[in-house]
Design a protein that fits this description.
single chain, alpha/beta, 350 residues, 2 domains, six-stranded mixed beta sheet
Length: 350
């Protein structure tokens, strides 16, 4: 229509150490969300490759007038000598790739221009969980956000319409239990338990990088193939036989030493061990935060299926993040909660 205003395009980015997630919002509607592998510890060219794939998927994101906002956790990778250097380098790299509209999410400090990242690096570093919780708190006054990703789990209390956390930094959140280094793709299985049940007996686990949680949830059928983007521990296939072989190595066996039902039972044993660990931390955080009995769990991340299982254990209601924040559009965006959150927070501003 002649004279009509151009669409308002906002792209939210969550730049992690292993993946880049993005969310496209046009005129307030969530149009799409996606994740691309980007092992930053191997070099910034992997970030560039992910952004190139995003431009191919969303050509409107490269047009003049599109706004870009970003949050990050990738500053922690060992490509950088320390987190401050990581924030500054990523800010500069993103600004060059995404253009002058880019703003960085800095929690209570608001939006920061990339050239001010050095002054605000501590507020920018690993603040993605706060963006997710801030948007949630605007929509649901009392809730427990449980975001289970490929590598980590965030346990964030929302109380009285405000983010009610005990720790602000990764170090503090590790101490309080609000950050749990458990995910459904990259976590080595030897980190989940020292002993597991197998064929009626408890057996010791090999403390080797033989298998990851992706093998467990690939075998149980719960891991969406779209999120199974990381290489396997042995750099071999992701078919059922190769997956069983990696699980078998964890207990000193080969896949041919037992039948398929035994290996599926072992996968469920690993799943139970991870649920126990995340569930114990969740109860600890809810107790410390005095979370109301009526407050639901809000499920986010590619491991949202585990949140529904935890809610059933606890007898609590469970709501998917996309529904809790009342976002209109692509439901898959709930799996990229921080990217959705920064895009939605920015889109709500005039």
């Amino acid at each position: 229509m002649p004279g009509a205003d151009p669409p308002r395009v906002v792209v939210g980015w969550d730049v992690g150490g292993a993946h880049v997630k993005g969310c496209l919002v046009v005129d307030g509607r969530v149009c799409d969300a996606a994740q691309w592998p980007a092992p930053l510890w191997q070099g910034l060219e992997h970030l560039d490759a992910a952004l190139d794939l995003a431009r191919q998927r969303w050509p409107e994101a490269a047009r003049s007038g599109a706004r870009h906002v970003a949050t990050m956790t990738g500053e922690m990778v060992d490509l950088f000598p320390h987190r401050e250097a990581g924030v500054v380098r990523l800010a500069a790299h993103l600004a060059e790739a995404l253009g002058p509209s880019l703003r960085l999410y800095a929690g209570a400090s608001g939006w920061v221009e990339p050239h001010h990242a050095a002054q605000q690096w501590a507020a920018i570093a690993s603040a993605n969980w706060r963006a997710s919780a801030e948007l949630l708190a605007q929509r649901l006054p009392d809730a427990m956000l449980v975001d289970v990703g490929s590598t980590t789990t965030d346990l964030i209390a929302v109380r009285g319409g405000a983010v009610a956390v005990q720790g602000d930094t990764d170090a503090a959140r590790l101490a309080t239990g609000e950050l749990v280094y458990h995910g459904v793709v990259r976590t080595p299985l030897c980190a989940l338990a020292a002993r597991v049940p197998f064929r009626g007996s408890a057996v010791n686990v090999m403390n080797e990088f033989f298998a990851t949680t992706a093998d467990v949830y690939r075998l149980t059928g719960e891991l969406d193939p779209a999120h199974d983007q990381q290489p396997t521990a042995d750099r071999s296939g992701k078919d059922a036989h190769a997956t069983r072989q990696r699980l078998a190595r964890m207990v000193g066996r080969d896949a041919r030493d037992a039948d398929d039902t035994d290996w599926l039972a072992l996968a469920h044993a690993w799943r139970a061990a991870q649920l126990d660990e995340i569930g114990g931390q969740l109860e600890r955080v809810m107790h410390a935060g005095a979370i109301a009995a009526r407050a639901p769990l809000v499920a986010a991340g590619c491991g949202a299926f585990l949140v529904h299982a935890l809610a059933a254990r606890l007898g609590r209601a469970c709501i998917d993040y996309i529904d809790a924040v009342q976002a209109v559009g692509a439901r898959r965006a709930g799996l990229c909660a921080p990217a959705l959150a920064v895009a939605a927070l920015a889109a709500s501003e005039r």
